[in-house]
Amino acid sequence: MPRLRLPAFLTRPRQLTRSSLLYMALALLVLVFVPLIVTTSRWMHAVRIDLTADKLYTLSPGTLHIVDGLQRPLKLTLYFSEHATRDLPQLRSYEQRVREMLQEMVARSHGRIRLQIIDPVPYSDDEANAEGSGLTAASGGSNGERVFFGLAGSRLSPDSENGAINQVPEKALSIAFFDPAREAFLEYDIAKLLYELDQVRKPPIGVISSLPVEGKPILGQQPWAVMRQLGQLFDLRMLDPAQVKRVDPHLKMLWLIQPTHLSADALYAIDQYLLGGGHLAVFVDPDAEMQGSPYDVGGVLPEHSSDLPRLFAAWGVMYDPRKVVLDRSRALQIELAGSSLNHPAMLGLGAQELNRNDVITASLQRVNLSTAGYFELAADASTRLIPLFQSTGDAEAVSTQRTMQASADPASLLQDYQPDNVHYVLAARLQGPFHSAFPERSGESGHLVASRGNAEVVLVADTDLLSDRLWVETQNILGQPMMSAFANNGDFVANMVDNLSGSSALLSIRGRATSQRPFTRVQALRNVADQKFLQKKQELERELADTRRRLEELQPPKGANSDTLTTEQRREIEQFRQRQMVIHTELRNVQHQLNAEIDALGLRLKFINIVLVPALVILIGLLYGWRRTRHSRRRRS
After folding, report:
1. Is residue 170 within 8 Å of 157, Cβ to Cβ?
2. pLDDT tens digits, residue range 466-481?
3. Please, how many CA atoms are within 13 Å of residue 472, restricted to the half-sphere of its CB?
4. What is the mean pLDDT of the chain?
5. Residue 300: pLDDT above 60?
6. How are strands ordered across the β-sheet holding 149-158?
7. Where is each ABC-type uncharacterised transport system domain found (predicted)?
8. Which 8-state DSSP code applies to residue 245?
């Protein structure tokens, strides 16, 4: 029987080529690295690098501290009307900035923050939810649509049985609208929302006041509007200054309003509270008009001025309780004896007198004060005084006695008025290292000699701004009292308490640069061309004025026939028209030159970005590849 022989290609071992080995190596790499990537994706995160000049996308240490310390899961919903803003490029650009900031916080939260982005189209459930969350719609969208651009936040409660997250929110807050003008405080506003959502209870605020801020229920007087407003958000605790021996360190903030005749123990308690990391606001007044009438204290005239001389001296603050600031350029108009007059001691401060770089006053438009004092910093002070609002340079400081004597005739304060050419600081932040005003008590247990790092105090040299008469009026509508604000005094106090009652991390978040970076070269070209344009425009206006004056001299009297115009008059009119056309042509040429220079600059930038830079990258890659190929050939040879 013949033997069966197998083909040679089945009996010889197959030799692996170089390409086969390469494919096998690639397959092995895939088998090894794919499972490795999948298993490590849960704990390995992409490295995020902020290459912007002002570090716009780098969260500040204060924000990182708030995000890392969140105790409860939070849900954030960003409402943005995508369709309604298709013709609003600036708002769309700012929405991208807000979204990227939120995404950066979400990435840092390790799952504690959930972000959802919704386009609330008109007449939808999403639009109703946006309004129900407290968002405010702006007008001016495409086709007259309303524009929503706000953030709704809620704190979710964990299910006590299985540890899952209950979708029913325990607490809800919102940012009604992201105003691009407030971009410098975007990070602060979002961090503040996160901090407040994470708080389980109302923050406790301590109040020491010699003014009737709580009203007088026996006499039917309601609490001041500012106190009613704050009571909705904070746990206000009125402290008796005669009983204060120690300030609870758990108070988020201590608020002094017209502190008069405080005992040494009360002052020491305030001193130690501040040095221990507490937040303090002090409202003093050289003439507190709401102090009360003479009949409130047995016919004796109450003291209308307040001061903290020992604490102020230790803090490096100079304050004179016998001086009032007058400012005739910011005088409020009042009604007195049936006539209207400007009261130079009652001031209506506008946006120019308010600090636009501080989160407390950045969004305010008007603050009204009355008989306010001022603060200065001592020459040897280790602290820093940052004005919140101040007077104009047309102000004058006069004695308190003079303003009180002129209460029946405020116009007399303008007699012999001499401006001091000084911008008096009426309210300010005081920052820096603080030292105890009671060094003699260093032997007592727990005594603090200095503050722990930089402390902060808000100083206001007026208490009348808290009273209803300077910022709000109450109207009775359908039996319900409705408050109508005509100044931002209440907003100022709310912003101040919000800022100071937050954590120290929240206080550390300051205003930042905006994402709108101007084209400086283009702006410089525009400025140069505008100067040329302005010169030509002024020349045209001068010639127009001269020609009109000449025409008035040459024109016949009114009612006369225009045919009576002389040849000289017609020649003058024709020359004017010809010259006007020439100057208009020159103006158009200047504008064309401006556009040509800007277009040329734009073309150069496009060439650099689109052609030159990619060409350089390709050239570098080709040179690198050529060198590697040449080196490999040399090694093989």
Report:
1. yes
2. 999 999 987 665 556 6
3. 21
4. 82
5. no
6. 113-118, 74-80, 149-158, 165-175
7. 202-496
8. S
Contact (Cβ atoms closer than 8 angstroms) between residue 281 and residue 441: no
3-state secondary structure at position 168: strand
Task: List alpha helices for 276-375, DSSP H.
Answer: 309-315
Greatest CA separation found in the chain? 144
Inter-residue contact 154 to 171 (CB < 8 Å): yes
308 contact partners, CB below 8 Å, separation of at least 6:
256, 259, 262, 267, 282, 284
- Per DSSP, the three-state class of 532 is helix
Angle subtended at Cα 272 by Cα 268 and Cα 274, rounded to the nearest 5 degrees: 120
Q: Which residues contact 388 (CB under 8 A, 6 or more apart)?
A: 354, 355, 358, 360, 361, 426, 427, 428, 429, 458, 460
Interval 562-575: pLDDT, tens: 556 667 767 777 77
Residue 293 confidence class, pLDDT cut points 50, 70, 90? very low
Six-digit token string for 179: 């105003």
* Amino acid, single-letter form, for residue 469: R
Residues contacting 152, CB < 8 A, separation 6+: 76, 77, 79, 129, 130, 133, 134, 135, 172, 173, 174
Residue 577 to residue 567: CA distance in whole angstroms: 15
CB atoms within 10 A of CB 306: 27
Question: Which H or E element spans position 504?
Answer: helix 504-507
**Helix ranges restricted to H, 199-317:** 225-231, 264-275, 309-315
DSSP states of 108-160 as a string?
A: HTTTSEEEEEE---TTSHHHHHHHHTT--PBS--GGG--B-EEEEEEEEEEPT
Sequence-distant (≥ 6) Cβ neighbours of residue 382 within 8 angstroms: 316, 432, 433, 435
Each residue's pLDDT tens digit, 358-406: 989 988 999 999 999 999 999 999 999 999 999 999 999 999 999 999 8
State pLDDT tens for residues 232-263. Answer: 888 999 999 999 999 999 999 999 999 998 99
Q: Which of 466, 389, 394 is nearest to 426 (CA)?
A: 389
0.85 exceeded by pTM: no
Q: What is the DSSP letter of 450?
A: B
Q: What is the pLDDT of residues 191-237, one digit of tens each?
A: 889 988 988 888 899 999 999 999 877 777 889 999 998 988 889 99
Burial of 267-292, coded b for 16+ CB within 10 Å and e otherwise, reads bbbbbbbbbeebbbbbbbbbbbbbbe
Is the distance from CB of 316 to CB of 337 less than 8 angstroms?
no
